[in-house]
Amino acid sequence: MTLSNANVRAILNQVKSPSGQGLIDSDLVRALTVDSDAIRFVIEAATPEEAQALEPVRQAAVEALKAQTSVPVSAVLTAHGPSKPVPSLKVGRHPTPQAGPQSVPGVKRIIAIGSGKGGVGKSTVSSNLAVALARKGKKVGLLDADLYGPSQPRMMGVSGKPKSNGNDMIEPLSAHGVTIMSLGLMVDPDKAVIWRGPMLMGALQQLLGQVAWGELDVLLIDLPPGTGDIQLSLCQKTNLSGAVVVSTPQDVALLDARKALDMFKTLKTPVLGLVENMSTFHCPNCGHEAHIFGHGGVADAAKELELPFLGALPIDLDTRLAGDSGTPIAAGDCDMAQSYANLAQRFIDGGIV
Ligand SMILES: Nc1ncnc2c1ncn2[C@@H]1O[C@H](COP(=O)(O)OP(=O)(O)OP(=O)(O)O)[C@@H](O)[C@H]1O
């Protein structure tokens, strides 16, 4: 039987780690690849001693998968070094003064992904675009700057507190070929973030400057919706290559998108292009095409404002389900994955990435 990435994760989560949690929930699995000819993953422990103790768990995980598929399974144990202290870095402080807009060492381009209105799919587009660019060979980072409602950990399927690299820098997490960091990984997920502007700006500064992003072709920043403190702070304090605005074709969303575009113009952040999300709906039963939120409005707005139109993405049940399951649709090989691959190619061909 051919197993999907989600099937494999579910099977691995049935295998208990020494903490009593499933292997996925206890955040021990790294670099999971599920291909038609092989399933591979790494079980990463904190110390070599812990790795040794996990050998029976590794064997149990391999056996559990082999019981469900004839595809060869390989799993290796690694330790990321001797025990390290938890980061002394505590996210949630006021910003420190900085001379001017900052770059992130090793990161070639920083692109903010914004929207005027909430819920138009900005986080979905950010995560899928990140995965699609990574599949095209780009080194991609994804920073979830939606500090009030961070959704990237769930959409990218990462959990567990990031660790310190011993130099007061946080090691980001990685999934689907993308390097990820989110405030959602640093704070209690059940507690609402109730911070005022300066605290949010301090957190953003830390997520950019105190995360060991490494060498990246591009860092995508998933902004919160609207035109608030975080957008202002990011545009003024960071050397952005530019911003991409996501909108649905609906009039109210477009009205808000125009406000976001106006904000970027005022802050002199170049707008690299517009993306239309939830563009059309293809009924899976009868093939009828419906325009639930309208159609073509974003392309028209781009034309009017003389901005590049980067593409239209349909409204699609599997996209939503994939986001909820932690494996973005762009990681697979369906039509939607191809749409995201095309979008990523347009970013590359247009010299955006
Ligand atoms: N093309 C699509 N087809 C179907 N569902 C989608 C699509 N794009 C996004 N969604 C779903 O719509 C919901 C909102 O999407 P998402 O969280 O990406 O929006 P957002 O603009 O980042 O929202 P927020 O304002 O909360 O940050 C999610 O449940 C997501 O799975």
Tags for this model:
nine-stranded mixed beta sheet, 353 residues, 21% strand, Rossmann fold, GMP Synthetase, Chain A, domain 3, 2 domains, three-stranded mixed beta sheet, alpha/beta, 12 strands, single chain
What are the SSEs and their pairings?
Elements: H1 5-14, E1 29-34, E2 39-45, H2 48-53, H3 55-66, E3 73-79, E4 107-114, H4 122-135, E5 140-144, H5 152-156, E6 173-175, E7 178-182, H6 197-209, E8 216-222, H7 229-237, E9 242-247, H8 251-266, E10 271-282, E11 289-290, H9 297-305, E12 309-315, H10 317-325, H11 335-349
Parallel strand pairs: 2-3, 4-8, 4-9, 5-7, 5-8, 9-10, 10-12
Antiparallel strand pairs: 1-2, 6-7, 10-11
The structure holds adenosine-5'-triphosphate.
Q: Would you mind describing this structure in some detail?
A:
This protein is α/β, with parallel strands linked by helices. It folds into two domains: 75 residues, GMP Synthetase, Chain A, domain 3; 243 residues, 3-Layer(aba) Sandwich (Rossmann fold). The protein is 33% helix and 21% strand. It is built from eleven helices and twelve strands. The strands form two sheets. Strands 4, 5, 6, 7, 8, 9, 10, 11 and 12 form a nine-stranded mixed beta sheet that branches. Strands 1-2-3 form a three-stranded mixed beta sheet. A hairpin with a 4-residue loop joins strand 1 and strand 2. Helix 4 packs across helix 11 and helix 6 packs across helix 7. The chain starts with a helix and ends with a helix. About 2% of the residues have low confidence. The structure holds adenosine-5'-triphosphate.
